User: Which sequence fits this backbone?
């Protein structure tokens, strides 16, 4: 058994084993009700990174009774499938929303179970993703030549054993019209020992291969995580980071700035900052949209441009991602654009003047040699 497999097998899955939780029996009974609906998993590596009750890592993985409050508050408009993924599944566990790309779920298990997960309806429950659903998904991709990009997701695709993962990668890479394969994973930041040299040798055979990693707080970037990210980068995978904006975890400019700068140091490009989805059981994590814009505004000009992620809402009901920007354009006309910089100062940028083509004067037309004269010369 490899170290990452031991860390998974030693995961906390019961309320009795949770760190820094009140000993009050009535409270623990409520948490058990939460766990019946939304399972618990904290692998032993990640558990060691949790330092105290209500620290940013604790909040991401330890259940609270607030998860049950969401179930009772129907007026909030929360949903078990807020992005309406099931509607866009032509075959089980494959989402085809955008014209040229699909999301293929390889499993429904994760190294940790995030309390804010948009797929709380699926994660941690057995039997949802099977070899048969994978076969149907790969067959669907092969039959649709408009698909050029597949995102392997779940769950977490990097929890699939090496041999099975390679079988899936090979089947996808054998599809002629498929250009890009992406891996959506939280493994490098929560179970870094899984990124073994053997795994990287497999991955490097199937380029172009990209990895979208999930990080929410700078405390997640440990020396072990740096090793894992470097291994993936050395195997030729471009690495991007996806972050969810979470109340009490990363909802400040200072924390987000530290996170994005640490990500660049471990060769990961900050890519998306997500407004939290309206998933049932997660409402206590949601911030205002203005908070996200404030953070982007606080990053722009105060750190490298490549450290600033796109701030997006994955729109409720399945409308896809919409990028949001702070108000940088104050006014624009045919003559100029007035813009605001990171310091709040305004500047004017002249619009290009459309130049009319020059017309010949009558005198010039008379004195110009004719084409026949030119031919005789």
Assistant:
């Amino acid at each position: 058994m490899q170290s990452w497999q031991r860390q998974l097998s030693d995961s906390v899955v019961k309320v009795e084993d949770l760190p820094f939780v009140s000993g009050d029996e009535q409270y623990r009974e409520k948490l058990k009700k939460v766990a019946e609906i939304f399972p618990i998993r904290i692998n032993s590596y990640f558990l060691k990174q949790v330092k105290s009750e209500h620290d940013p890592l604790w909040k991401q993985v330890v259940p609270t009774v607030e998860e049950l409050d969401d179930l009772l508050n129907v007026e909030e408009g929360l949903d078990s499938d807020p992005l309406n993924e099931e509607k866009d599944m032509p075959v089980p566990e494959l989402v085809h929303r955008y014209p040229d790309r699909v999301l293929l779920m390889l499993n429904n298990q994760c190294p940790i179970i995030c309390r804010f997960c948009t797929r709380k309806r699926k994660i941690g429950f057995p039997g949802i993703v099977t070899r048969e659903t994978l076969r149907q998904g790969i067959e669907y991709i092969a039959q649709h030549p408009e698909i050029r990009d597949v995102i392997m997701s779940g769950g977490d695709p990097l929890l699939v054993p090496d041999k099975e993962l390679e079988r899936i990668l090979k089947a996808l890479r054998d599809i002629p019209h498929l250009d890009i394969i992406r891996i959506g994973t939280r493994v490098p930041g929560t179970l870094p020992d899984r990124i073994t040299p053997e795994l990287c040798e497999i991955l490097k055979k199937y380029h172009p291969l990209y990895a979208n990693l999930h990080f929410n707080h700078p405390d997640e970037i440990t020396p072990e995580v740096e090793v894992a990210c470097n291994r993936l980068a050395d195997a030729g995978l471009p690495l991007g980071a996806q972050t969810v904006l979470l109340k009490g975890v990363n909802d400040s400019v200072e924390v987000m700035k530290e996170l994005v700068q640490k990500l660049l140091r471990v060769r990961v490009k900050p890519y998306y900052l997500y407004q939290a989805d309206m998933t049932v059981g997660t409402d206590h994590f949601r911030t205002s949209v203005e908070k996200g814009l404030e953070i982007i505004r606080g990053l722009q000009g105060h750190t490298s441009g490549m450290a600033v992620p796109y701030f997006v809402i994955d729109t409720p009901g399945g409308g896809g991602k919409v990028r949001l920007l702070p108000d940088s354009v104050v006014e624009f006309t045919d003559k100029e654009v007035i813009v605001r910089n990171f310091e709040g100062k305004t500047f004017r940028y002249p619009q290009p003047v459309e130049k009319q083509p020059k017309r010949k004067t009558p005198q010039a037309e008379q004195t110009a040699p004719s084409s026949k004269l030119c031919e005789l010369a």
Notes: Residues 368-377 have pLDDT under 50 and may be disordered. The two ends are 91 Å apart (CA to CA). Residues 140 and 210 are 21 Å apart (CA to CA). The longest helix spans residues 25-37.
